[in-house]
Structure formats: C-alpha cells, structure tokens
Amino acid sequence: MRDVLYDEDGSLGVVVESGRGSLPFALCHGEALVACAAWALGEAGVTQVDLGTPWEALVEAGEPLVLHDPLCPMTPADFIAACVERCAATQAVVVGVRPVTDTLKAVDADGVVQDTVDREAMRQVTSPIVLPASVVAGLEGLASTDFAELAADLAARFPVVTLEAPAEGRRVGDEDDVRVLEALTAR
What is the C-alpha separation between 7 and 164, in angstroms, rounded? Predict the structure, then answer.
C-alpha cells in the first residue's frame, strides 16, 4: 500500500448501508462489515459524511463523492484512492467492477432457458462508485442505493469508466460469502 493515499483536493465519501438488511453488521475478522468499509474510506484519504447529508451540501462542497458499499467491506484503501485519482483525471464516473465467474443463461419471455451468455463481456458492479463534482452538481440525489442500478442509471447520463477491483474487493451476499471473504483476506 502507498504511504500517502489520494487527498489532492479532497473528496467526500459515504458508506451506503441502507437497503442491505442486517448483513452490513455481520462480522469479518471480528469487525462489522460497515466498520471495515468506513476504515477503508478513511485510509484512502476520503472525508466521510453521513448518507443523510443534504444533497445541496454535497453539491456546495464541490468535491468528488465516493460511494462505498459495506457489502464490499475489504476493498483495499489503495484501490479506493486509485478510483478517486482516475475520477479526478478523467472527470468521469468511476465504477469498481469484478469479473463474472458464474455461468449465465438467457431466458425468453416465457421463462424458457436459452443460450449461455458470454460472461467475458459481463462485469459485476462492486465498490466504490466515484462521482466527479460536476456529476454531483448535475444530480438531485442518488437514483438508487443499489450499486448495479445506480451504475446503470449513471452510465445512461454521464461518461463512466470501470476499474477492476482486486479479489478482496468482492461483494458478499450472505454469511457464507463473508466466511469466504474472511478466509481470502486472512493475514
């Protein structure tokens, strides 16, 4: 990890735990997922604000906004900082993604399974999503707190670039996934 992470002009960040049930409060390495995510933001040089912060205050701050999902709790701080740096360099929305490894099948309107979908062209949205200040100013708020829905909405309206998150930045969907992530990130 770098000694100094991104803080050139500053950025604000939110750990988005709403709409995720109780899973953000599950433990990984003895700490709540939401706490792990918050620490990563801090280590990345991001100033944390509450999800309830009025949108107008975020616009007025004139800084990039980093959205971090506690269901990707072990996303490394240096990856978050790299996403903020890419956002600053490109002025595009930056979305962390992971390769899709599951077999995907297409289903027709009647529910009949069709062909296998080429997963090489597919990505799973993970964390973070970084919005440049200009995008924050162009929104009235977040269209969704579901990162896949939000990324799709943003891509329809703004330039978006993706960065492949490291394996420890994977998304968890249940307690079993948390145990796998814990094993993956054991020291």
Answer: 21
CATH number at residue 79: 3.90.550.10
Q: How far apart are CA 136 and CA 131, in angstroms?
A: 6
Q: Is the dihedral of CA 132, 89, 2, 182 positive or negative?
A: positive
Encode 41-63: b = buried (16+ Cβ within 10 Å), e = exposed. Answer: beebbbebbeeeeeeeebbebeb
C-alpha closest to that of 128 among 10, 32, 27, 14: 14
For residue 157, being part of any structural domain is answered with yes
Structural domain boundaries, residue 88: 12-184
Count how many domains the chain has: 1
Inside any domain, residue 36 = yes
Of all residues in the chain, what percent carry a pLDDT higher than 90?
79
pLDDT of residue 72: 96
